[in-house]
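cron nightly-structures :: item 1 of 1
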Amino acid sequence: MKNIGIVVTPGCWAMSLFAVTDFFRIVSLLEKQTGLAAGYRVHLLANAADTRLDAAGGIAIETDSSLEEARPVDWLIFPAIEGPVLEHTPSPPRRALEYLARHCEAKRVVLTLSTGIVPLAATGLVNGLRINTHWAFLPTLQQRYKECHFRARESYLQDRWLYSTGSLHGSFDALLALLANDRGDHFAQLCAAHLLVSSPIQMRPVLPGTRRHDDAAILAVQEWLESNPQASLSLEQLASRFGFSERNLKRRFTLATGLAPHLYLQKVRIDRAKKLLISGALSVQQIAHQVGYENVSYFIRLFQREAGDTPAQWRKTNGAY
């Protein structure tokens, strides 16, 4: 079982904090429904000596322990912090700093949600890393923490053991990517379909490892493909849309994501099909058309090659509970 530590900082957004706890509640419910052993235990850890802290708006949060007293965890998650209190966010006490240093030196997962990076950036432990954050705070944070490399994207970035997000939806994207790495694609897709924040098909595709780069132009192409999987564009048309030559787009896209553009689009379409198979009653033919395949037989063969089952078999095994 993995232990998940959520670091509660004074002034953190309760919405961000509870989004994480609710995510793991959904995971727990689906583990029971699918007959899986419980895989995660969540601990609330205070980034201060006092274990009772106020979130944004004065909401009192009772934590399980302080970072100074906590046992090691597998993943550390830092919820977003309200803008007006960012410059007053205290650095962790010495023993808490030692705890964070041990965690990072062991290369255990750290996930920072938007402005939640501030307590960690203040320690110097993420110096030199690429960090995603909320666009509104990008100039301020870059000026304050000059050794960090801040970016502002809708979803998430991964640099080694650090995952960082720029929005609430990006937080779920990152959590699903971590879940897919840990429990596999089938279970991550099931969780994506049961998240209550939006329609499942509005979630980013679960494609771990494709956002470990810092090429903003390629990230823009990725995000467009993820939002328009049904689009029928040639490589030439896609390159022209984003101001590339065909050769340059293919080279940079493959270097950044590890996949050629057409293979990335293929995976995006299969991911969308999985969510549609789980979350609705559309026929396989309707789903094929919605994700951009007019030839249903080709779609079925491609899906089976990617997922290991035909769409009908995959739906039967992974359908909603």
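cron nightly-structures :: done
The CA atoms of residues 4 and 243 lie 43 Å apart.
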